[in-house]
Amino acid sequence: MPRRRRRGMLALLLASLFVFGTVMALRTLRAAAGLPAGVPPGVAEPPEPPGGRGMPPGAGPSYDLHAFYYAWYGSPRFEGRYLHWDHALVPHWDPKVSASYPRGRHRPPDDIGSSFYPALGPYSSRDPAVVDEHMGQLRDAAIGVLVLSWYPPGLADDSGEPSDSLVPFILDAAQRYAIKVAFHIQPYKGRDDHTVHENIKYIMDKYGSHAAFYKYRTSTGRSLPLFYIYDSYLTPAESWANLLTPSGSHSLRNTAYDAVFIALLVEEGHKNDILSAGYDGMYTYFASNGFSFGSSHQNWKAIKTFCDSNNLMFIPSVGPGYIDTSIRPWNNHNTRNRVNGKYYETALQAALTVRPEIVSITSFNEWHEGTQIEKAVPKKTLTRLYLDYLPHQPNMYLELTRRWAEHFSKEKEQWLM
């Protein structure tokens, strides 16, 4: 071999070794800093192609599986302060009871308003890397529809800040993982049939053309947006009927803003109110079995029978457990232990028994009420010992959801045969 060619090959080999060594050094530094390899700080990790992140080859998300999602969290890096992680301790409505419990606010990052601790730490919902990771976790769990907790522009809950500006960002992130986004319209001061009319027009005009905007195919073949209306019972059925019945004074029916509207069922008497209001179906939301008529698994068969006989959709809500004593220290009687996943599996099986078209999950990340299926990690501080998923891994509930999604899909095939 000529000497010049040998020198050229040696130089190429040395250059390759230098590049390889540099890349490995950067990976090591990133791992030490807790950053994903190959991702600059603050920049979203590029999504893996569909079928990645541990999903079975060819498996996609289930659009019959909806998970309630909250984008109200904030951190000093993105909002200048913590939002929601510093949740105040809610006083009991009876002053005598309230006097026996502590007051004040949580102090993140070590003390947060949750009995569990997120694997991502007390994050910001504005962090691109966090939102991308959430979409990956939803995809890992085979959840096809993210149900976004939503307030109109300029409005927010008592502990947060307006977040409608995050919607395009969430839609774009969801699209990369073939996930759809539906809206969970929250109660706000002055909410009624007129303001919700405006909300629906706003959402559909601004976001309805996005590829990730969820649409439900009805039995008549129409493709319509689907809206969950939280605490719908706060507005009288007669008022809702103005909006949701064909003869209503400002009806959305048979207009460009028609949709599938799902009301919250809490008490047994709400069934008939929901029917007369013109709603298309009902969901139960609460993950505490026995907390309300709607959230009690034993009542789901009767609710489904009522819905079937009145051409309504029943969407039971299942959850992995419930504990909100980090923000409502007096509410221990509504705690539901996870029992290493058995509570969740019992809820999932109860939902399956009534053969629903859609199942909703409470929740992906409502950390205050301990209903999250998002990754959580063990954590102990000088003043707090957080609950965790041990002896299982942080992704335990994502895996459990994915396995159940496959089972749900197979069962639905049998029902249709």
Automatic annotation (TrEMBL):
Write out the annotated subcellular location: Golgi apparatus membrane
Keywords in alphabetical order, please.
Golgi apparatus, Hydrolase, Membrane, Signal, Signal-anchor, Transmembrane, Transmembrane helix
Gene Ontology molecular function terms on file: alpha-mannosidase activity
Asked whether the keyword Transmembrane is assigned, the reply is yes
Q: Which InterPro entries match?
A: Glyco_Hydrolase_99
Q: Membrane topology type, per the record?
A: Single-pass type II membrane protein
Signal sequence span is 1-25
Q: Where is this region: Disordered?
A: 37-57
Name of the protein this chain belongs to:
MANEL protein
Q: Please report which protein family the annotation says this sequence is part of.
A: Belongs to the glycosyl hydrolase 99 family.
Gene Ontology CC: one annotated term: Golgi membrane
